[in-house]
Amino acid sequence: MIMATAPKGTYAVRMSVRLAGTDRPTGFAVVTAVYLVAAVAAAAVVGALPGSALPGSGPLAVTFWADLVATVVVFGGSMLFGNSSIYDPYWSVAPAVIAVAWVGWRGDAVAARQSLVVGLLLIWAVRLTANWAASWRGLGHEDWRYVQIREQTAGRLPWWLVTFTGIHLMPTLVVFAGLLAVWPAITVDGRSFGPLDVFAALVTATAIGVEAVADWQLRRFTREPGNRGRIVDIGLWRFSRHPNYLGEIGFWWGMWLFALAAAPSWWWTVVGPVAMVLLFTFVSVPLMDRRSLARRPAYAEHMQRIPALLPTRWK
Known about the structure:
The protein is mostly helical. It folds into 2 domains: 1-88 and 136-177, no CATH class; 108-128 and 180-315, Four Helix Bundle (Hemerythrin (Met), subunit A), CATH 1.20.120. Helices cover 68% and strands 1% of the residues. The chain has 12 helices and 2 strands, in the order βαααααβααααααα. It has a two-stranded antiparallel sheet. Helix 2 (24-48) packs antiparallel against helix 3, helix 5 (112-135) packs parallel to helix 9 and helix 7 (159-179) packs across helix 11 (271-295).
C-alpha cells in the first residue's frame, strides 16, 4: 500500500490529504459503515424484487441485482472518501453473505454437500478478509494499482468512470460468475454425496491452504528489514511467482467441482473459474510483474526461472 495520489486539485487529492492522518480504527469504522449501508440497500432490492418478477433463475437473478446495487453503494463510499481500496474486502465479504443467504432461501435442512461448500467458502472469506485487514493502513492509503491506474488515465478519462468500471464493477461481475457454481452446489438436491464431492473438497481446501501459506510467507519476508529490495523466493514462492493467485484460482475451480457433483447440467458455470484464470493471467499477474521489473532489475531473470502460476519444478 502507498499513499494515494491524483492530479492536483481533484477531489481524490483533497480527501487523501484530509484523511492521511486518520488512524486504522477510523478507517475500519468507515469501511464497516459503508458495507452496512450496502447491505441495507441489497436487502431492499431483495425485498422489492421477488424472483418471479425478474428474468432468469428467480432468487439467483435477484441476488445478481442486489449484488450490483451493493457494489454501487460501495463505489459511492470509495468516491466519498477518495479511496478505492474501500472496495477491496468486497471480493471476499460479498460471497460469504450471498452463500449464507442462499442457504436461508432453501428453508430446509442442509445436507453434507451444502455444509461443506458453505463451510469452506466461509473459511476462505474470513481468511482473505483478515489478510486484507492486516495489510490495509487506513483511509490515507490506497492500493498501489489504483494509484497507478489513476495516474495513467488522468486527463483522458474521468476517474469515477475508471474506478467504477475497472475497480468496482468488473471484479463484482467476475466473482458473481464464480458464484454461479455455488448456487447449484447449495440449492440443487437429488445427487448424493460422492467421490467428486470429496475431490472438490480436497481441491478447495488445498487451494485455501496454498493461498494462506503464500500470503503468510510473503508478509514474513517483507517484514524483514534485510529483505528490502530483494525478490521473494522462499517457500511456495520458489515454485511460482504468484502462488497466492494460484490458490485463489484453485478455490474457484473447487467450487465448480462441487457444482458438477451436485448437478452436472450446470457444467456451464465453468465460466466462473475460467473468468478467474483470465483475470489473473492477463490483468493481475502482468500488473505485478511490471511493477517488480521496474523496481528490481533482477526480476527479469527471476521471470525466466520461475513460472507465473503453475509450478514446473519442485526442487
